Predict the structure.
Amino acid sequence: MSKLLNFSMKKIKEGSAEIFIPTEEKISKKLPVFYNPVMKLNRDITILLLKQFPPMNLCDPLAGTGIRSIRFAKELRYKSITANDINERAIALIKKNMRHNKVKFEVYNKDVNLMLLESNGFDFIDLDVFGSPNPFLDSAVKRIARNGILAVSATDTGALAGSFPKACLRKYWAVPQRNETMHENGLRILIRKVQLIGAEYEKALIPIFSYFKEHYYRIFFRCEKGKKKVDEVLKRHGMFDKAGPLWLGDLWDSKIAAKIAKQSEDKFLDIIRRESRIKVVGFYNLPKICKKNKLRIIKQEEIIKRIKKKGYKAAVTHFAVNSLRSDISLKELIKILKK
């Protein structure tokens, strides 16, 4: 076991966990064991979301250093925790980190799909993937329990946001659009792809919390069983502008978004809380509208105030700067901007 840990390490603290990680500065797949400090918020949000549900059987199939599973063990009430990684060095490090944190859970050294398919299933499966989640979707969907939660990450923003449209068509069966709404479009394209895999197994996968941050997309799906529920999901697939087919339904359960924001002081989560109340697809990019209509740019806060005064909803969107989500029509918005 010690031979597998013959690389330099340092100790770091994240949440309630203190773990050993490789000392290399550059984050890449070449790390002896993968750990990405940028994804701390991803793990924070996961724990905040899981706190809204009864104890679950939790699965971390791409565990790396074990940070996610160890934080689950220290910060959540749970039925069971299962961690897995195909990398033998990762398994050795997970066990070292478990001992250091005085926690214990099941650890497997298997291919992700094999581990999932050989299991009896889980209430929560976290596909926190570096790249595309495509190789793991089928087995994860098969093993997510009724009323369980499937979490999916993707750093494949080049394809999903429109830099590589042919790759998006091949991998996600949709056409992206490289414009101001490209990241919301990319998120919705990814949601539809996961839902189509779910449809094969009569599982309706409903987004309850979704976001785009820095370099990745993240979605939490609630799994509901039944043909009729799947049919309802499929009815909500379509085009938005020239992008799609994509998911045209809600990105959030606004009650869950409010509870998560309440438990955190992170401004990002408060932006999502406000945004989640507005049930529309897409948003308005103010500089683009002002430039096209030769209008003076007004402060966002003032525009939101004016929109609300007219009886519409409005909030800043987390998807892009100087942009807002609202149920007001473009024609009405331009009228407000002209005043």
The chain has two domains: 2-274, 283-338. The radius of gyration is 21 Å.
